[in-house]
Amino acid sequence: MDNVQQLVSAMVQPDVESRIESGRERLHELFINSQRKQAKAGTILVQQGQHESRVFYIQNGWTISHIKISQGKRHIIHIGISGNYLGLDFLFMPQSLPSNRTIEVIKDCTYYELDAATVQTAMISYPDIALFIPHELSVKYRRSSKHLAEMGGYSSEQKLAALLIELTARTAKAFGTDKMTFLLPLTQKQLAEYLGMTEQHVHRSLKKFQKESIISVYKNEIAILNMSALYEIVSGLRSIIKDVQVSSIDLIEQGFIPI
User: Angle CA(107)–CA(225)–CA(61) in degrees, nearest 5?
Assistant: First the structure.
């Protein structure tokens, strides 16, 4: 029986993966065949508390999703970059429920949007899309779970190091490169709101990383000079990955590597 199960698993797994990839391609095609839109930094795509039924595909640009917390403060819960879908969870929520977050553009965006009903119809017509969307949501869930763990148990330097590793992997995947340099449009205040730190701690940690030649910063450009050192700061496991290679990017970006 075990041999049979292993054989079935070996036959099914590649098929599932190929169907997920097929669903990715079909959904991408659906979006880019709609009207392309542009938004300047500061544009609000979704407002917390308002009813929302649109799904977005970010072709180029950066976004943040944030929620209001006590005393007029906010917490950033997601950083969106080129190639990301936003609002996929709206597909599975009753339309009577308002959005639980605000989605804001922080770097000029080119994007596409579709109403939830259009995407839901495509999910029925093309089961591969229906397979891809939960996969995409699970990636976001794993990343969010990892971020929550970091928020609760990491020092300020560990939080920042983990974010730099993650963004290096995500931007490398988005732009099809293994370079460890990327433009970071978040302000130190926004980094603090995402990492659960003060601006002073963000500033101090960035300066320390620069002083130790772990990173270099020029305007909004971050260059990772010593990825191994970032891993050592986070976990002490320098040997996990000595450099961010293309083969490792998916594992980091999807939250499988516990940085």
Answer: 10
C-alpha closest to that of 61 among 148, 155, 185: 185
Under 8 Å between Cβ of 142 and 253: no
- Would you say residue 159 has pLDDT above 70? yes
3-state secondary structure of 83: coil
Token pair in block for residue 92: 């599975």
Tell me if 208 sits within 8 A of 155, measured CB to CB: no
Pick 96 or 185 by higher pLDDT: 185
Q: What's the rounded Cα separation, in Å, for the pair 214 and 219?
A: 17
Cα–Cα dist 135/20, whole Å: 8
Encoded tokens for 196? 């659960």
User: In the structure encoding, which two tokens stand for residue 90, read together?
Assistant: 């709206």
Cβ atoms of residues 65 and 80 within 8 Å: yes
Alpha-carbon gap, residue 106 to 83, rounded angstroms = 15
Q: How far apart are CA 39 and CA 28, in angstroms?
A: 19
> Strands (DSSP E) along 198-242, which ranges?
215-218, 221-224
Rounded Cα gap, residues 75 and 190, in angstroms: 9
CA-closest candidate to residue 233, choices 177, 160, 125, 167: 160
Give the model confidence (pLDDT) of 186-236 as tens digits. Answer: 999 999 999 999 999 999 999 999 999 999 999 889 999 999 899 889 875
